[in-house]
User: Fold these one by one.
Assistant:
Number 1:
Amino acid sequence: MYSRRSRFLTIMLILGLAFFYIPMIMLVIYSFNDSKLVPVWGGWSVRWYQVLFESEEVWSAVALSLKIAFINATCATILGTMAGLAMVRFGRFRGRTLFGGLLVAPLVMPEVITGLSLLVMFIALNQLFGWPGERGFTTITIAHITFSLAYVAVTIQARLTGMGETLEEAAADLGAKPFKVLTAITLPRLTPALVSGWLLAFTLSLDDLVIASFVTGPGANTLPILIFSRIRTGLRPDINALATIIILAVAICISIAAILMFRQQRADMLDQQMAAREDT
Amino acid sequence: MGAKLTETNAVSDTPWLNQDGQQPLVKIKGLTKKYGGWAAVDNIDLDIYEGELFCLLGGSGCGKSTLLRMLAGFETLNSGTITIDGVDMADVPAYERPTNMMFQSYALFPHMSVEKNIAFGLQQDRMPKSEIGDRVHEILKLVELENFKKRKPKQLSGGQRQRVALARALVKEPKLLLLDEPLAALDKKLRKQTQFELANIQDQVGVTFIVVTHDQEEAMTLATRMAVMDAGRFKQVGTPTEIYEFPNSRFVADFIGSANIFEGRVTENGADHVRVKTEIGEVFIDHGQSVNVDSKIWVALRPEKIHIVKSQDPASGPNQVSGEVDDIGYLGETSIYKVKLPSGHIVDVTAPNQTRPMNRTHRITWEDKVNISWEPSSAMLLTS
Amino acid sequence: MTDVKAQKPTIAAAPRKTVFQRFMRRVQNNFRLIIIAVPLVWLVLFFLAPFFIVAKISLAELAIASPPFTPMIEWLDGGVVTIRLVFDNFAYILNDSLYFDTYVNSLKISVTSTIICLLLGYPIAYAIVRSGPVAKPLLLFAIILPFWTSFLLRVYAWMGLLADQGTINNLLLRLGLIDEPIRMLYTEFAVYVGIVYTYMPFMILPLYANMEKLDGSLNEAAADLGSRPTNTFFRVTLPLTMPGIIAGSLLVFIPATGEYVIPDLLGGGNVQMIGRVLFNEFSSNSDWPVAAAVAIVLLFLLVIPIIIFQYFQGKASQDP
């Protein structure tokens, strides 16, 4: 449904994009500021990048965050895919309503509530079973998987519903047992959703501050926890540098993904045009 | 087994007639499927014999697809039994049934090549690789797609996809092949051509086909026998000729082809003839049918079985009525005349346009006085 | 098919299965159960059960212990069990005007921000839907991109813009529009800007998804029947995009109500929101029972919006 876009809509669009991007552009520009006071321009410099790279603390926080994000994304993708399959492909079963509710609630639950309740759960578990012991890497990962799997499940559910069930029925009709149908048909077709689910879970984990703050223990600082502790007291030029690096990394990754997707789409369109000519 | 594909079918052409000689391949008894309180399939009985090409014909929502999906094992049934080749299918899951399905959307696996799509079913049977290769090659030859085996479904045209779907279902040599609107996705010209191809392939492989379709022309072309379905029930089961020429109800007469239907009462019931007094006058029928005198009845007349001639004189004699042309529909090969009778009824008459209308005027034109008539054998008696 | 089955080795001749093969056999046999049970157990254990523990703690008293609250069930001499439910925490929260005002303030800020997001986001989503086939994916991409970058850093970016010596004040001073910096950072205004900025994509994306599905010929039909664009918008487009409006609004409203980072960084100590109070109650004061009670009350406030949201999600996943 694309027709004329009225002038009002165009202006709103431009203002909206400016609103989205100007803050980030300023953030990047000031990361090259030589001055120690962020808002006061003291000429171009990369000294804050040097400060950043020399910081042991930053490196260990980055390492911890990446490790948690990676494990979280992998586990959440597996669990979320199972949940999505159960919701879309298994018809009615006992506890389905509860399951559905538990899958949607983490998407909107305020982080402070999720964080607090997970913390008291870990303490209770520790008192009862002596596990998970010292809070930190394990507890943060479990907490992240819990909310990430809900996001993955939504992605998978949408894709499964969109795909329809006909191909699975066709495979069963040709003699494939349920497990074979899953591995030969459903999972290969889910690949794009699995990839985007994994990336979403990875990003959510890297981004989380509040829940990690609740469930972390002494010494386990993820990158957001580190950043937060530094910016609470005001502007810090080294954080501008860090932000620039993160924005750059994200922009590069997403651009590559977008280009690949665009190419695939174009190839598909060409294929279809070629094939359509072959009918007599 | 491979030889079977090229062998011609030795089974009789009309297996449903000599029932004592042969057990039906598919036996359906009292089959019912309910969604909530509404019966999609309502207490259906049906026997299908080996080698048949059976068509299920009906409008959308009549239950034909549900019936097909129950045969394939995708829908559970509320009551009744399905027996295929003597085995009750109640506890047999879809992946163990001796049936294969050709889906309306074809359901080709988009991430597999043509070859892999076709081999998929054979791999599930753990058939040796070399044999899979042979069988795939053979079936690709049958559907004339040898040069396309490495292509992905999205690189195929509609007609080619249709043939891959057929090949994939056939290669497993099922006892029963289920086809859900097999030609619906093709455009009209290709569809007509493919109808005959499909019937030929069925003849060559000798597999029993059940075809679901909403297109009556397709059903009549393909079927050895067909069932007309409405609201979950069979209205009539028979050969295309039986159903067209001897419909058992107003519904069937009107659903298949078109018919002029008039209400009347039986006035005379002889051994070899029946007279009916109808709204448009007396109708004489020269084939005996067991109807009671004075019972309410309907007479159906196919538009193409009515003769139409220009006439100034009022008509006389049996099965002759005069009227006036109210409207004409020019279809090229034929024309439809809407003839208004003195009683006010409109009768549809079709006539082939055997001569080219000169000076853009038709032989019979608007407001012409005409006589219409039909053979005593042409009128069909309907009791319901 | 029959001769193929005959080629299968008999059971006696079958080679011993490896551990992995036997494991896979088990998985295949219990396929359905495993797929349902694993994520369900995880969610019950780490999402549902914790709420009950929070509820339990909210009914306990602060104690000098680890963890710092009194147990609910106590064994007295002679095997008598007493269950102590203390409603003091709830009474304290509801009577103390500090907490009450904070709840009201949180709701005020989140409702207002949701409305601003809707008013700004709706035309933006509509503009994207109405864009050409080349511009559309690019614009959508531009809206999603910030979502993939760090939330914390996006809030931080506004600290730089809004600070007393920040970019905006510098610019205005240099242009001579103001004589002294306007105080923007650490005010309620800054909190609004932060919430609208970070939650806007959550409004735009459901709206876009909803509008994209609308049949373009509906607008043409309305125009054909003599309806002016404004009339068409209010009579056709707006009612049909209601599901998107509801989904987007809830996606902004619910998390914004419990927001912690934005009031902390952009509001400083000057803007009280319940998420921040909860966090501080818990971390600085270590008063877990009160923190738990604050969380339970917040949950009660949000339970109806959450149920509405689940209802719409459930409907959306049933019919695509």
Number 2:
Amino acid sequence: MHYEPCIEVRNLSFSYPDGTEALRNISLEIGRGEKVAIVGPNGSGKSTLLLHFNGILRGKGEVRILGKAINKANLREVRREVGLVFQEPDDQLFSPTVFDDVAFGPLNQDLSAEEVRTRVKEALQEVGLPGYENRSSHHLSYGEKKRVSIATVLSYNPEILALDEPTSNTDPKNRRRLINLLKGLAKTIVIATHDLDLVLDVCPRCLIINQGEIRANGKTEELLTNPHLLESNHLELPLSLSRLQKIKDR
Amino acid sequence: MQHSYLDKYSSLNSAIHKADPRLKILVALFFVLSILLTNSGSLLEFALYGVIIASLVIASRVPPLFILKRSLMIIPFVVLISLFLLFDRTGLSAEHSGRVLFRGIVIKSYLAILVLILLSSTTPFPSLLQGLQRLKISKVFILLLSFMYRYIFILADEAMRLTRGKRSREFGAGKWRQIKSTAPLIGILFIRTYEKGERAYSAMCSRGFDGTIRTFNTINLRMAEILVGFALITIIVLVKIFSNSHAL
């Protein structure tokens, strides 16, 4: 498959209204079909960066999605191509029923009722929750909410998925399900997380970001096996690797 | 954290549950209006309305005890508001004395709330919203109700967690200090609510929200339901005529 840039960011800087510099001169490129992790400690700017991918936040610099620079005129178009999943499912799920939430995106594209129903059914199938249409979001378990959150963007079939901490607060079984789900999706995927084992499993490439700057950008297996790099960015070796390391040290 | 359902029992499977929400809303509205327009002294009429409600409850298969329990919540408010009527002596005739008015208001509100509880426990909240929407109620208003339904428990949880956090650390503090520290807690709850609203709005925009609310209909009115609805309205009207002619 020939390389085609999907997300391009050039010299992006962003400060919150209170003056906190969240992003400093960020440049990156993600190709179509790539699965890339954005890794960094709390408050490093991961989520802020994700919010720039569909124009919810607009900083100084340029963000291009599928070759087009984001501007006011093409926001709707861009958002159709970038499915953003928030970390907190209670922010993502704002409708009375699961159906309404999963149908929200497709309905905003003015698809036919028939088509919307099919999309909802397929999206719920894909995240392993078939038949959940009529449940109320506030009666779901946290793991189920996380998966429904992903279904709410799968339903309108965006080219790019941007996920903020998809595995946070989930038990091992739900976490594994989420990981398998993300691995199996044939889409361009960007994951902001500090679950490094998830990164090892799903993303061949990763970016390390700290204090709003990109500190490293390369192959996951190289970056995440470099204890010095990780520690200087307030991270540590993924658990699965640190055990190996301990065995080697003996 | 688990809360009781706002619309518990709304997914049972009786004829009333299955009926079109629009029809239920309209009949309930008509019923409440007739109750409110009853002469406060007309105990017979109140009793007959009670009988209608009781038979509807039985038909709906919602446990009567649940409806009773829920309805009791309204009594303190009504009593508090209408209490002063008991002491009213200003130029009212004997049949409109403060005592009769007070009794009338309490009975009316109680019957009305029974009707509304019956409506909400036989109609899932989302269908209720859909019914309101089909009845051409403003979409903004419906959206507000739907957010309320979605977030009220999340906010209640948030408040509960904040209070817990406060309680676990306020050991040894005097009563006054404890009360004083409640104020910032309310402030924080407000800010969190506000921020949650902003994030939910971002999530809506991310999925292509442009200010128009799009939904589609899944409800269809059946002829039989319309007939039953009319039958109910007729019964209510008959009750009104019958008890008024007997009062004279």
